[in-house]
Amino acid sequence: MSNQEKPTTQSEVKKVGRPKLNIDPEQVKRLARLHCTMNEMASFFDCHIDTLRDNFSNEIAKGKAEGNISLRRKQWQTAVEKGNVVMLIWLGKQMLGQVNERFDSDNDTPLPIYDIVDEPKEIIELKEVKNE
Known about the structure:
By secondary structure, the protein is an all-alpha fold. It has helices at 25-33, 38-45, 49-81, 85-96, 121-131. It has a domain at 22-104. The radius of gyration is 33 Å and the shape is rod-shaped. The relative contact order is 0.07.
């Protein structure tokens, strides 16, 4: 009998391919929640990025979304509850579209004072006309 014809048992049959990895989907989600990169997660699990992308894309997306929510919650608490002015300004820019604007004037015309005075504009203009 040649080697090819020799009967084998199941325990003697060699498995083909890489050994199956036991990757916990919950652990993938926790790492994604921390905003780990795909390279970092693949390194942690000792697998290829495609393995994670192909098998755990839902867990990764959900984890990243939960991480965003958690970060936003902390930012909100820091800004509103603790009164962090810098965070309030930043959130105003991000969420409300507020911007820092400089008012540059090429001429020497003073800024109108009626924006900062309690009197209405018409009264100020009437006073200016009477003084002329």
